[in-house]
């Protein structure tokens, strides 16, 4: 049952009997008033009777009283008369045998005046009776309560009090609707007051709590109220306020961290480009040499128009091809160095790995590293940021290349496959399908104690200008943002030396962060 209903029922249950009791008391008072009126009236009638009859002589008593009684019946008077005692012709006294009357009769004789009472009839109705003693001349002369003073006869006056019962019932019937109206009015009033004062604000409070539970902390509830509910609401508001501040603080921290990570990633990119500078110069140098050679050849033939026309076509094609190669190299470097906002798309991991291999392709060739690339024909797309994933690939590839001494016939194995696994530390989570990118080299390897440190910022074993110690830090952050993780094995399983880096990225991300949110996790 609702609170308002319960309180209303309780209030009605308390007040209705009280009102009923008051009503009953009022009705009883009314009955008592009416009965008192009746007694008074009876006394007046008795006085009038006595005034008309007394002094009453023993001889005329019976006919006088009989005549009076008969007249009262004839006129249908309010009070009917009955002879209770009278002297008969022999001078002896006759009296009624009705025990009720006898009691009254004796009381009247004793009291030396009229005595009345109310009584219940056998049929349950109430009636009023009065015994009126009547005196003759001699007795009237005696003072009241004189022991010798005795009435000649006693007359009974009787009246049904049904009319009192009817009047009381009529009053009850008249007041009952009022009573009902008061109870209903009270119940409705209490209900409305509770609805407005308690139920409605409580409902608003509950709605507010639900909103807060859903994450909306901007609500301020019932601040205008100054009662108990207002106090609760104010405490609640203070709590949401504190939560809001905490959340804003957290957001600020997250944003600061995000900004810092973005800067870190960008500077790591630039450092990578710096490290590649020599190789880029080398890569651009070769086609430039070719272009220069072809241009000189054309210059030599310039004096001989026949030779020139023969060679122009071929040389121009070669020059164009070399320019295209330079353009491609520069585009790749520019592409990589360009700072872009994080975007989430469906990344074709094999393509991204292929592009990263292209960037370091010339170096691999020059160092005589044998490369083996294994990619599955069908692998679902990885939700993520292609630039960031490419940065990870490039980091790992460059680390692998750096670990292998130049010209010593290194072996680089790049494998992509799909695996179904549980994320480490989430033993109860359902197994998920991940893309597994493995970059495996047979280089110097990582000494066991150093494996702990390689993801630490600025941890590097390379010479100044060769390494920044940020590559793996940044890679780790990026992969984590993609809900994945990195594993290291040095040496890889079943190999005498070298290192294997494994990157796991979820293929289907059921609860993918909204576009642009990668990096915020
Ligand atoms: N494939 C690898 N083989 C051997 N050592 C590696 C390999 N990858 C990373 N390392 C070690 O981890 C360190 C940190 O790598 P990284 O964070 O990329 O920074 P940097 O390459 O600038 O040194 C490297 O200096 C190196 O000692
Ligand atoms: Mg590195």
Describe the structure.
With 521 residues, the protein is α+β, with helices and mostly antiparallel strands. Among the domains are: 3-167, Beta-Lactamase; 340-521, 2-Layer Sandwich (Heat Shock Protein 90). It is built from 12 helices and 12 strands. The chain has helices at residues 3-53, 61-74, 99-111, 137-141, 162-214, 228-301, 305-337, 349-359, 361-366, 386-403, 448-451, 471-481, and strands at residues 80-87, 93-95, 115-120, 126-134, 153-160, 345-347, 370-374, 382-384, 411-421, 432-441, 485-489, 499-506. It has a 5-stranded antiparallel β-sheet with strand order 2-1-5-4-3. A 5-stranded mixed β-sheet has the order 7-9-10-12-11. A two-stranded antiparallel ribbon has the order 6-8. Helix 10 (386-403) runs antiparallel to helix 12. The longest helix has 74 residues, at 228-301. Magnesium ion binds at residues 395, 398-399, 467, 471.
Question: Any chance you could write out the topology, listing elements then pairs?
Answer:
Blueprint: H1 3-53, H2 61-74, E1 80-87, E2 93-95, H3 99-111, E3 115-120, E4 126-134, H4 137-141, E5 153-160, H5 162-214, H6 228-301, H7 305-337, E6 345-347, H8 349-359, H9 361-366, E7 370-374, E8 382-384, H10 386-403, E9 411-421, E10 432-441, H11 448-451, H12 471-481, E11 485-489, E12 499-506
Parallel strand pairs: 7-9
Antiparallel strand pairs: 1-2, 1-5, 3-4, 4-5, 6-8, 9-10, 10-12, 11-12
Helix pairs in contact: 1-5, 5-6, 6-7, 8-10, 10-12
The structure holds adenosine-5'-diphosphate and magnesium ion.
Magnesium ion binds at residues 395, 398-399, 467, 471.
């Amino acid at each position: 049952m609702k609170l308002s209903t319960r309180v209303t029922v309780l209030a009605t249950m308390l007040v209705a009997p009280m009102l009923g009791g008051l009503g009953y008391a009022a009705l009883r008072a009314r009955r008592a008033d009416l009965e008192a009126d009746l007694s008074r009236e009876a006394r007046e009638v008795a006085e009038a009777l006595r005034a008309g009859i007394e002094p009453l002589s023993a001889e005329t008593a019976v006919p006088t009283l009989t005549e009076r009684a008969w007249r009262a019946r004839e006129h249908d008077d309010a009070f009917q008369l009955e002879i209770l005692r009278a002297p008969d012709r022999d001078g002896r006294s006759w009296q009624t045998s009705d025990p009720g009357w006898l009691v009254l009769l004796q009381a009247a004789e004793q009291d030396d005046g009229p005595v009345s009472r109310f009584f219940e009839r056998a049929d349950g109705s109430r009636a009023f009776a009065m015994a009126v003693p009547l005196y003759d001349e001699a007795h009237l002369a005696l003072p009241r309560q004189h022991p010798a003073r005795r009435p000649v006869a006693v007359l009974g006056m009787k009246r049904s009090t049904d009319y009192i019962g009817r009047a009381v019932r009529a009053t009850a019937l008249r007041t009952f609707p009022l009573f009902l109206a008061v109870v209903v009015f009270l119940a409705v009033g209490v209900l409305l007051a509770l609805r407005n004062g308690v139920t409605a604000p409580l409902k608003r409070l509950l709605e507010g709590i639900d909103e807060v539970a859903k994450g909306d902390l901007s609500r301020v509830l019932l601040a205008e109220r100054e009662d108990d509910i207002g106090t609760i609401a104010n405490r609640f508001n203070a709590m949401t306020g504190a939560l809001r501040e905490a959340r804003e603080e957290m957001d600020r921290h997250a944003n600061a961290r995000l900004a810092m990570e973005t800067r870190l990633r960008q500077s790591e990119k630039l450092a990578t480009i710096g490290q590649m500078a020599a190789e880029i110069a080398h890569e651009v140098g070769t086609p430039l040499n070719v272009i220069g050679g072809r241009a000189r050849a054309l210059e030599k033939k310039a004096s001989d128009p026949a030779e020139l026309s023969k060679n122009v076509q071929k040389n121009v094609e070669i020059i164009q091809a070399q320019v295209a190669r330079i353009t491609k190299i520069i585009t790749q470097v520019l592409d990589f160095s360009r700072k872009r906002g994080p975007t989430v798309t469906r990344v074709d991991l094999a393509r991204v790995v292929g592009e990263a291999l292209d960037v370091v392709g010339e170096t691999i060739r020059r160092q005589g590293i044998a490369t083996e690339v294994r990619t599955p024909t069908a692998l679902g797309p990885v939700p993520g940021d292609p630039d960031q994933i490419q940065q990870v690939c490039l980091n790992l590839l460059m680390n692998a290349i750096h670990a292998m001494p130049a010209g010593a016939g290194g072996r680089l194995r790049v494998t992509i496959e799909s695996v179904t696994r549980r994320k480490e530390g989430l033993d109860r989570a359902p197994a998920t399908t991940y893309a597994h990118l493995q970059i495996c080299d047979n280089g110097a390897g990582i000494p066991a104690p150093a494996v702990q440190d390689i993801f630490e910022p600025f941890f590097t074993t390379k010479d100044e200008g060769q390494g920044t110690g940020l590559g793996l830090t940044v890679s780790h952050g990026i992969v984590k943002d993609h809900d994945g993780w990195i594993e290291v094995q040095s040496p890889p399983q079943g190999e005498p030396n070298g290192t294997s880096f494994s990157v796991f990225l979820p293929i289907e991300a059921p609860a993918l962060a909204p576009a642009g949110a990668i990096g915020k996790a």
